[in-house]
Amino acid sequence: MEDLKHLEFLALNSKEIIEKQVDSYRQQHTYAGTIIGATALFIPFFLGGFDGTSQIVQYVSIVPIAFFILAILLMLSIFRSKPLDQAFNVTKYAELQEQTYKEILLFEITANSHSYNLNKIITEKGNKRYSNGVSLTIIALICSIILIMANKFIKIEKQPTKVQVVNVKKSAVGAVSDSIIALPASQSVSDPGH
Predict the structure, then answer these.
(1) Model's pTM, two decimal places?
(2) Rounded CA gap, 179 and 143, in Å?
(3) pLDDT tens-place string over residues 171-182
(4) How many domains does the chain contain in total?
(5) Residue 99: count of CB within 10 angstroms of its CB
(6) Does residue 119 sit within a domain?
């Protein structure tokens, strides 16, 4: 009887590689869905931060919105890709019943290898889209945070500051300064000479 342990090892190993490839593909879909959801929640928050701002800031805010939309479209395109091939097909069982154990192992190794090569094309395309989508999301987040912070600083500069002017005569400067210290903060000093 022939020793087939090396073929069994290759068949098992190739099957595990396909399973890892499929698991990675599914995990990428989960991450893409999470990024789409988080981005969809962030966009209204981002747009709500620009009430009553200058037109320049509003026009510049189009850039991160465009990046967010492109990132969402890239992530959605991951979901449209073909499903991965899972190697050993159930429809081949009838054919393989009459084969020897060695032929079945060789068939499984060949099928797994072929599936891996087909899946590699799909996963590489999905990985590229996912990486580009994540990069666009990060760039859009950085741009939007910078715009929100800049908008806050612009609003602070536009608000008038309240200044209270006290008119003091030179002869009563000492008396007035003593009375100002004694007054509570809620009272105002009007004309100290009267």
Answers:
(1) 0.70
(2) 53
(3) 555 554 555 554
(4) 1
(5) 13
(6) yes
